[in-house]
Structure formats: C-alpha cells, structure tokens
Amino acid sequence: VRSGWRSVIDCIVKLHHLHLLPSKVTDMEEVRNILKHSNARSFNKKEETSILQSVSNFLSFDSGKSKPEVKTPEEEEAEKRITTYIESCHIEEIFTESKFLEAESLEYLVSALIWSAGETPKGIANSEEEEERALLCLDLLISTTIRNRDRIELTWAKTFEHLKSIIDSATLLSPLVEKGVFGLLRICQRLVPYKDDMADDLLRSLQLILKLDAKVADILAAQLFSELLHLVKASPDRIQTEACWKTFSALLRVGAHHLEASPAGFEILEILIAGNEVTEENLVSFLEADLAFIEGHAGSEDQSMKALDLLMSLVEKIKAWPTSDKIFGYWSKAVNVARHACNDSRPQVRNQACVMLQQVLLSSYSMNHTEEQWGEVMKEVVLATVNGLVTNVKKHREHEYPEMDKTARIALLMLSKAFLQFLPSLVKLECFSEIWLETLSILDLCNSCSSDELSEAVPEALKNMILVMATQGVLHPGWTDSEGVNLWNVTWQRARTTSPNLEPGMLSDYNIEYAK
C-alpha cells in the first residue's frame, strides 16, 4: 500500500468520529502514555447514537445528529455483529505491525497520517471535529514513529515537521499543543537510549519547547520537567554536541524560575554534571544553568546552596584540565558566576557565595596562570566584588540586601587572604602599586561605613597585609611608584586613620627589620 493509505486513514478517522473505532487502536501503549498527561480542556461528549445509525452515517458520510431511538432486539443483535465485524478487522495491527511494512509503504503511511490530520497552525483547529481528527492522527503518527525506531531515518523528518507546525510559537494551550509537546518527549524517551546515530537530532528537537509562549510553557512546566528528568535518567550520556548542551541549558534556565518545575530541573542538572565529562563544549551551558538555580527564588535556599556546591565541583573539574591558553578564560567564567552570586538578595546564599569565591580563588593559585592574569583577577574580581558590597553598606540598602555588612566582612577577609596568596605574582606587575592603593581605598570606604562588623574587621585585615608585605621586603621606606610617590609613607598615613596602633614601630614587635 502506498498512496492508498490516505483512504485507509480517512476510514479510520471516520470510524473514530462515529465512535466505531475499536478501543485497541487508541489504547496502544505509546498512545496511552501521551493521553495520560492531558491538562488542557476536554470537550463535551457528543449526543450518543446507535451503532446502526453510526454505520448509516458512515456509509453515507453523514455526521448529522439523530434523535435517540428505542432499539428492537433485531437491531441490538445487528449492532453486536457490526461491532464484532469491525473488531475482527484488527485495525490496530496497521500500526502495531507497521515495522514489517516495506520502507516506501511506511513513508506513505506517515505522509497519509500527516495529510489526514490537516493544517493546525500553532495547534489551533477551526472546529472540534477538526481537532479530534488531528489528535487521532497525531497519536497514530507518534505510535508509528516509536514502533519503527530501527527505521527512524525514514519517519523522523516528516514527524518532526508536523510536530513543529503544532508546537512552534504556540500562543494558546490546546489539547493538540499539549499532545504534541509530550508526544515529542515520548519519542525522545523511547528512541534516544537506543539510537546513537539519531540521538543528537532527536535531542535538538527539544528546541521546539523553547518556542512555546511563556504562558503555555508555564502551564505545562511541572509535567514537562518531570518527563525531561525521566529522559535524562535513562540517557545521561547522550548529550554530546554543543548545540544539544545549549538546548538543555536553555530549558533548565526556564525551569529554575518555575516553582513546581524547579526541583526536577535541578535534579536534571545534578545528573548531567555528575554523569558527563566537563568540556569546552558544555562548560558554559553548565555554568549558565547553574547560575539560574543559584539565583532562582522558585527553589528553596537549600537548593541554591546546593547549586553553589555544583559550581565548586565544576571549578575542580576545570582545574584538572590539561594546561592550555584557553583554561584561564573558562576558569574565569566559573569565577564570575560565584562573583555574581555574591550579590544575591538572600543573606545565606550571598554569604555562602563569598565563602565559596574565596575557596575557589585560594585553591586555584596552583594553576599556571600568568602574573598578568592574577593581577586581572585581583582587580576585576576581588577588588570589584568587595567594593560593590561595601558600597551597598555605605548606601544603607538594608531593605534590599539584609545583613549586607556581614557579607562585606566576609568579602573583606577574602580580599586580605587573596591579596596575600597572590602577592608573589602581584609584586612582579608594573601596576602593583595601583592594586595596593586601590586596596587601601576600599579599606577607607569600609571605615566610612557605620558598621561595627566592618570597623572591627578592617584593622586586623590591614595589619596582616602590612606584616606580610614587610616580611617579604615589599613594604619598606624606599618603596615608590612610577611617579615617585613614596608608598611607604602613604601606607602608614592611611593605616593610622584606621587604627592608631598601626604605625611603623609595630614591625619591631614582630621582629621585622627593614632598611631605614
């Protein structure tokens, strides 16, 4: 059978419309798994007619309504025979046994189902009858596609285009749009684990979901991410290309901000990071998704904290990469995610982000970054982060950022430790004096804040930096910048404004000698 499939499908559609289609046809496993997800509206049942009347309508192609009638025993017997006859045709075997069709016949069957479904742009049909027809044909198309997984290359292109015509840019939730979305996911669930050569094409098709209108996506999100989780659990290692990683990252970023979808979305991210090697192709996708869950208020604070832990694990994986010219750039992207999280409005998340940023910076000094790169980290990450946090304290933005002074204190400790950790590299830079003066300016800003947290922390932080710099011979009376400014004098002048106990004589208390 080739072009004749159109007539066959038309008959099946007509039988379905007249309630004569055996339940076995729509009770196939693939169809049941799609039908169970229905969240969209359901239609009122039509006024029932007798089977004899339905047969009469079928033969005359008349779908008009008829009044209920009292059936005679002869008519009841005739109805039983008709039902038995239709069931004996085993219509369901057209689809359950379609894997035995010749390739050309299978392609014609798929085309006939799509043709018979009619055009429903954005999943909207012109009438209830048209929608019922489109729904049935979509069910049968998905079932046929799944049952012919070993010949997916024959069916997928046409099936995808049909799904695209339904889902792409859908602005209203209809039963057809809903069935299209979950039908697409069902195909991926059933085929991706077994079709290495088609896995990429199948997974990239999930981009269609991203084109749904935001309101439609919001309604479907909870069930959608539950199905995505099922897919990822079965095939955690099937995402291979950068395009697929970007697709999943985009989906996860949507889920991170949905109250009901967020837990499943985060579990997906955990599975993917744990089950895959972190590479140049997927790192940015992981970082973008992880940041969404760190920031996402849809999930709990505990989930945001776990997302920070995932970030730390990503950094550890980057540190294990072979040395290359690119590694600093990728490492910096991860560091900037942590830096961004330091501005979260929730104190617990913000404080943990600062602690983690410090851990990342200090534990990464063994990486073979250049002096210039460590200087960039000091200026663009450490100093910029602390300056931003302290500025918020200065502006009294407690209503936006509660407990910001505590966060600023944690960040100040990070500044002190990072400065001393990086010092061997920083002193080799021409801009080292600028870095030091900027550090002193931030400490001055801390002193100007009406905060007990900071006023207690600044003197200790500055003292530690001065002692180490003096011990290593960096801070001495002859130290000047490129313009001849004596940095020894500047340092002590600024130190005295912080605490009267910070003066050159204290160095002798620690047995530190310097050239006078």
Automatic annotation (TrEMBL):
Residues 329-502 form the GBF1-like tetratricopeptide repeats domain. Pfam families: TPR_28. InterPro entries: ARM-type_fold, GBF1-like_TPR. This is GBF1-like tetratricopeptide repeats domain-containing protein.
